[in-house]
Design brief:
The chain is of the alpha/beta class. Helices cover about 30% and strands about 25% of the residues. The protein has helices spanning about 15-25, 70-85, 110-120, 140-155, 220-225, 240-265, and strands at about 1-5, 30-35, 55, 65-70, 90-95, 125-130, 130, 135, 160-165, 180, 190-195, 200-210, 230-235. The chain is globular, with a radius of gyration of 22 Å. It binds manganese (II) ion (MN). Manganese (II) ion binds near residues 9, 39, 96, 109 and 110.
Length: about 270
Amino acid sequence: MKILVSNDDGIYARGLWALVRALKGVGEVIVVAPDREQSAVGTSVTLHYPLRVKKAKPRLSGVEAYSVEGTPADSVILGLQMLAKDGVDLVVSGINEGLNLGNDVFISGTVGAALQGYFYEIPAIAISAALVKNKVRFDTAARMAALLAKKVEQKDLLPGTLLNVNLPHLPLRKIQGIQATRLGRRSYRDDIKKGNDGRRDYYWIVRSEPERGEEKGTDIWAVRHDKISITMLRGNLANSSQMSHLESLCSSLFAELGYAGSKFRGSRFTVRSH
Ligand code: MN
């Protein structure tokens, strides 16, 4: 089994090599990762600049490693299309230094890398561990990744699977279980700090800690209750009641669109303001 490993903390991040060490026992590992930290770049793909790729010195022998002057998603695309010659059976991204929960998954570079695997219809796993007082426990997260990789090998996890795994900051003996979760609603309060660099004003987005009080069954709730959270992500994010609401909205929107069209019939190229 061939496993492509990437991350958003950069190719020499400790979490990445803890992950590689564990996955080496399951399959052949190729590392393709950004040459520097790229946290919070999300799914960003570089289309306006050329990308440079360098063969990197692996921290473990027997592993092929490449650093990319680009985003996590760029790294996975290059890995899948060009660097992993005989195809890839699994994409694993992480181990991120810090949780990626709730709304965070939409800006997470760790998830952004895994998402490319999903787009290529390869099973993909994003894995993150809590960062507490600048410390991260990688050991259990690495073991989890290896276990899940074995499940992929045994066809227990199929293409189309995109898992977001988060671990609390606890030794294994204190972890209370593994919970299948849905995304919580964690969002930050964005404070804008204004400054001046001597020439121009600038604005700095500073994220404050999210509020507490999460519903049971969410990823945030699980980690807060000392459990490992596994969320299955998918391209279609709406649930069935949201979908039927959108359907009824669409039909009324179409009626309104028709009404506006008839109002301006004969003057398609002028926009009138009243
Ligand atoms: Mn990160």
